[in-house]
Amino acid sequence: MDLDFLTHTPFWIALGQIIIIDILLGGDNAVVIALACRKLPPEQRRKGIIWGTAGAIILRVILIAFAMTLLALPFLKFVGALLLVWIGVKLIAPEEDAHDGIQGSDKLLAAIKTIIVADLVMSVDNVIAIAGAAQSSGDHQMLLVTLGLLISIPIIVWGSQLVIKLMDRFPLIIVAGGMLLGWIAGGMLVSDPVFANTEKWLWMPKLEQTTALKYGAQIAGALLVLVIGKFVASRRPKVTHGSGHA
After folding, report:
1. pLDDT digits (tens, 9 = 90+) for 37-52
2. Taking the complete model, does pTM exceed 0.70, yes or no?
3. Is the Cα torsion angle 57, 62, 65, 69 positive or negative in sign?
4. Any signal peptide, and if so, which residues (predicted)?
5. d(CA 38, CA 40)
6. Which letter does DSSP use for residue 93 in this model?
């Protein structure tokens, strides 16, 4: 096997870029993983974190392989953004009562599913960034991507466990996590090809891809999740634990 590429600077630059992208993404993912697993019993949290992360990583490697095709798909980011808003609202206003009769294994599977779905949606932009970084090195693109992910996995897993501990202390972090998903959703929605590409899908309104538009959409997305989440939570009947005791 020819290992000459290990002495090439572009390979290491590209690997460094991919690790940085993964860690930046890991910050978002750590919050989602922690939010999804926070209600699990302590002995199941580690399982939820590990299996959720593993499933998300496998999907991300598959996504990267198709990254350039994904980039051009209309409505992919649009639908993904709506899905993220929904996940964000559910995190701010969890269905407390609905889970009372559910077994731990069901909760564990639900947590793993939430992690994988959220990661899949959030990864679209980052997958494209990683694919771009890998392309700059020429050959060995999938090796670069895999190495980058393997190096960043422990950071994401450790980060999510730290976030869970912080959430137990500061519940406001849960609201901030939901708003973070709304922030990402806003940026994704306005950059969907149906709005950004001025040569195709002419029946759709076009948005000039400015920094102001991106930040405005991100702020709007975060506020939307907060408002809907608080509204849904306020409409739920308050359960007073212990009300049935003498």
Report:
1. 888 888 888 888 888 8
2. no
3. negative
4. none
5. 6
6. S
Burial class (CB in 10 A: 0-12, 13-18, 19+), 216: middle
Place 101 in a pLDDT band, splitting at 50, 70 and 90: very low
Size of the chain in residues: 246
Of residues 209, 15, 6, the one with CA closest to residue 130 = 15
Residue with tokens 């993983």: 33
Return the domain boundaries, the chain.
9-234
Q: What is the pLDDT of residue 220?
A: 94
With a CB cutoff of 8 Å and minimum separation 6, the contacts of 146 are 61
What SS3 state is found at 3? Answer: coil
The b/e string for 217-240 (b: 16+ C-beta within 10 A; e otherwise) is bbebbbebbbebbeeeeeeeeeee
